[in-house]
Write a structure and sequence with these properties.
The chain contains eleven helices and 26 strands. With 584 residues, it is an alpha/beta fold. It folds into three domains: 281 residues, Vaccinia Virus protein VP39 (Rossmann fold, 3-Layer(aba) Sandwich), CATH 3.40.50; 95 residues, no CATH class; 115 residues, no CATH class. The strands form six sheets. Strands 1, 2, 3, 4, 5, 6, 7, 14, 15, 16 and 17 form an eleven-stranded mixed β-sheet that branches. Strands 20-21-22-24-26 form a five-stranded mixed β-sheet. It is globular, with a radius of gyration of 32 Å. 32% of the residues are buried.
Length: 584
């Protein structure tokens, strides 16, 4: 075969790729929430709760957060039920895999080089999902399949097996860069030789300060042979049992720095110095791949946690217990790291991240974003949430979050079926949206009306709905050409081959008429400039059953001799103003 083969999972429609619109995010200050005062110096206020389709939200986050997310935790739904009665099994699973693949590809771009992805999933799709993740992340970046005991008791009415577990698939962005934290051991798990407790309750054991074993003689490390003062004022030297000169394990400097760890023991003849090794000084133990409900909670635990917060509301689906997220974030993140959950559900990820001092972003499309997540986070911020991990981390409240919703689609079809700029967009929204589409950082200048964003120190973008004439374009060209924001830097060319006199400017306008050369400008018309970039007007790519595409029906083949007729539509040519070519 001429085509190079590879190992991969295939499914119906895998080759179909979406052209997502990178929406902008609009804050609603009325739904944002912050503590009335700072509780600690570590309070975090710039967390984000986004209401909207999570695939569009992930795309919206990509420009700002690519390579910045340390940990992604997702609990994707698979609530197909009987909605697929008109599909065969292959189509049902194919739709789910395509929707997940599109999300995972963006998630991978959002992860930092040392970041990791954690996905909870049941047996229905776990193994297909694992193979697909191998393809998206690379099989070498698979870390582990954790088994979580989600049920604390068997189902006696199960027909075949009583399912007690879910999977947590763990993938690294780059395995060689991944550094996971080890888990701390409880006192009950400590080895028996940690047989002492200090005045603060820390468990420890003693080890002789005199070196024992290889290279334990004075001649091996002469600088480590010196006297120490015992509690009775006597001078003690590191003598070996045969009376010869030995040496200490520590040098003079460390003895002074770690004096509080030295403990003297009085023997029959003289004093002997030991040093304390505390249990909490150890690196802990590597995380294991079986997590029992007694350690991280079960479905029953999580429902009780939510019920404790909202006693008058019906228990929320199948939320995850805070102990489970506490374990994940304890392994995968450190304080102030950024955590993302694009299937927020009841908001457990954000609640736990907040209590643990991690920054967080959550995305949720369902109305429970308002009925469950916001009230839950408000209780966390106000210090009123005493359940979950609050006691374990001594949570007292503080911090806050900003609430965002996805902006509507930038383009819409008018009464004649032509794509025009959405009337809901004001000038600021339009400039911000087009900056994102063109790869510019939105940063409007107070000093220069034409500077709406930049891609480099010299390359800028100007967005206007005006019809620009030659005089306006020439004035723009001259001003941009004479502009030099950083004189010491060599101009960076981002478009074309010519070298500008000063800056370069991408001008996006509804129409223009020019009659000259503008060497510092690149002029494009909107919406024509962006018309083919995205799927406009598509607001919902969710995995909810009611939003999935209808079952495909085979198209009848034309009869012999018949051609294919194109479906025409009436177009009013008077509406073509936004698509006219400007004069050169």
């Amino acid at each position: 075969m001429s085509k190079k083969q590879k190992l991969e999972l295939t499914w119906i429609g895998k080759e179909n790729r979406l052209k997502l619109e990178p929406r902008i995010l609009l804050e609603d200050p009325m739904k944002s929430y912050h503590a009335k005062h700072r509780v600690t110096d570590g309070d975090i206020f710039d967390n984000q709760l986004i209401f909207g389709d999570n695939l569009l939200a992930l795309k919206a986050l990509e420009a700002e957060f690519a390579g910045k997310v340390k940990c992604v935790f997702i609990d994707p739904p698979y609530n197909t039920g009987s909605a697929f009665t008109h599909y065969d099994d292959g189509v049902e699973h194919s739709i789910w895999l395509s929707l997940m693949r599109d999300r995972l590809e963006i998630i991978r771009r959002l992860l930092s080089e040392d970041g990791s992805l954690w996905i909870t999933i049941d047996d229905n799709e776990a193994h297909y999902l694992k193979v697909m993740c191998d393809e998206v992340f690379g099989r070498a970046n698979f870390v582990a399949n954790v088994i979580w005991e989600k049920s604390d008791s068997p189902r006696m009415d199960a027909e075949y097996f009583s399912a007690r577990h879910d999977h947590i698939l763990v993938f690294a962005k780059e395995l060689l860069s991944l550094k996971l934290n080890k888990t701390q051991q409880s006192d009950d798990d400590l080895p028996g030789h940690y047989d002492k407790t200090d005045e603060e309750g820390r468990r420890y054991y003693l080890k002789p300060l005199r070196a024992m074993g290889q290279a334990d003689r004075r001649v091996d490390r002469p600088s480590m042979f010196f006297p120490l003062t015992a509690p009775d004022g006597s001078q003690v030297l590191p003598r070996k049992q045969d009376g010869s000169d030995g040496r200490w394990r520590w040098g003079n400097e460390k003895v002074e720095q770690e004096a509080q760890r030295i403990e003297w023991v009085k023997g029959r003849n003289d004093w002997t110095p030991y040093f304390r090794i505390f249990a909490d000084m150890q690196a802990g133990r590597p995380p294991e791949t079986i997590w029992f409900h007694g350690d991280v909670g079960s479905n029953r635990t999580s429902k009780a946690e939510v019920k404790g917060l909202f006693p008058d509301q019906t228990a929320f689906g199948t939320p995850k217990p805070e102990g489970l997220l506490h374990r994940v974030m304890g392994i995968a993140t450190n304080p102030n790291d950024l955590v993302l959950d694009s299937f927020a559900g009841s908001g457990t990820t954000g609640a736990v991240a907040h209590k643990m001092g991690r920054r967080w972003i959550m995305v949720e499309l369902g109305e429970h974003c308002h009925t469950h997540i916001i009230p839950r986070l408000q209780k966390v911020i106000d210090g009123e949430d005493k359940g979950g991990i609050s006691e374990a981390v001594n949570w007292q409240g503080g911090g806050g979050f900003r609430y965002y919703k996805l902006a509507p689609s930038l383009l819409r079809q008018d009464a004649y079926g032509q794509w025009v700029i959405n009337k809901e967009y004001n000038a600021e929204m339009l400039a911000q949206a087009l900056c994102k589409l063109e790869g510019f950082t939105y940063s409007p200048s107070d000093a220069h009306y034409w500077m709406h964003g930049h891609s480099t120190e010299r390359d800028f973008i100007y967005v206007t709905t005006a019809n620009l004439n030659h005089e306006q374009l020439q004035a723009l060209n001259d001003e941009v050409g004479g502009f030099c924001s950083t004189p010491s830097l060599t101009p960076t060319l981002s478009r074309g081959e010519r070298e500008p006199n000063g800056g370069t400017l991408l001008v996006l306008c509804t129409a223009f008429r020019g009659r000259g050369d503008y060497p510092n400008l690149t002029i494009k018309k909107i919406p024509k400039q962006v018309l083919s970039r995205c799927e406009w007007g598509h607001d919902d790519y969710s995995l909810q059953v009611e939003n999935l595409p209808k079952a495909p029906h085979p198209s009848p083949l034309p009869l012999a001799g018949e051609g294919t007729k194109a479906k025409g539509r009436n177009v009013n040519v008077a509406q073509g103003g936004l698509f006219e070519e400007g004069e050169a």
